[in-house]
Write a sequence for this structure.
């Protein structure tokens, strides 16, 4: 771990800065689940900070569930702690969902293309085989940690031309604001899968990591199938909750 310097012009306390740096190391996987931290004196020396400030930061991380202290053994990174937790009953953009959890949200375009729709996806969208679709693939970040990869398929018969810069932050809002497509509901499947090599690089997780695949067919106010999406979430960074009522 690198030394944490003191910025005397910063309004953030030293303990707050230590907390932020350690939290980032845990969430991006540099400090692995189950890993034991060095002793407080050794870690304080390694980071170049006081033991009191370090102890305060570790206390905050314990309250957040990122660290657990085992008496007589040491302090360990917890096995599981999702960055994003919440329900999926309400249809909203992933960016809005991330921001509702108190994180900054950012999207990054991986690719944008027009191509012939795969037969399976044509079936989902009620398209003739050979129809053209716009394909937008993005990575979603929560406080600069990659938490999802999304692939969206939009029929060219619904929107002839698309500027990806208008929709990549939020396909929902972008289609509504710029292309008059008002998405009202979606049919969803939540499928557990294993991360392959390609997704592991995009999500900064190990190949074989458990992922949740959220497959959705989105309908507009006219009950047209206007969007098919596949969103991949590392289960250790993103968890969903469903509230069921009688």
């Amino acid at each position: 771990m690198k030394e944490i310097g003191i910025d005397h012009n910063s309004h953030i306390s030293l303990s707050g800065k230590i907390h932020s740096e350690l939290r980032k190391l845990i969430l991006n996987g540099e400090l692995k689940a189950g890993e034991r931290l060095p002793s407080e004196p050794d870690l304080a020396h390694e980071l170049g900070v006081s033991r009191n400030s370090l102890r305060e930061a570790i206390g905050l991380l314990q309250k957040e569930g990122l660290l657990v202290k085992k008496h007589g053994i040491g302090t360990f990174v917890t096995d599981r702690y999702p960055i994003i937790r919440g329900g999926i009953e309400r249809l909203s953009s992933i960016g809005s969902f991330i921001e509702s959890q108190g994180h900054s949200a950012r999207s990054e375009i991986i690719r944008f293309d027009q191509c012939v729709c795969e037969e399976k996806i044509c079936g989902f969208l009620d398209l003739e085989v050979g129809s053209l679709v716009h394909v937008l693939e993005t990575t979603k970040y929560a406080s600069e940690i990659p938490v999802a990869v999304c692939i969206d398929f939009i029929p060219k018969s619904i929107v002839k031309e698309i500027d990806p810069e208008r929709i990549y932050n939020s396909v929902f809002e972008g289609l509504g604001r710029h292309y008059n497509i008002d998405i009202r509901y979606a049919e969803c499947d939540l499928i557990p899968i294993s991360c392959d090599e390609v997704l592991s690089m995009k999500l900064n997780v190990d190949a074989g990591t458990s992922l949740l695949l959220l497959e959705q067919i989105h309908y507009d106010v006219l009950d047209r199938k206007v969007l098919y999406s596949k969103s991949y979430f590392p289960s250790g960074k993103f968890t969903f909750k469903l509230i069921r009522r009688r």
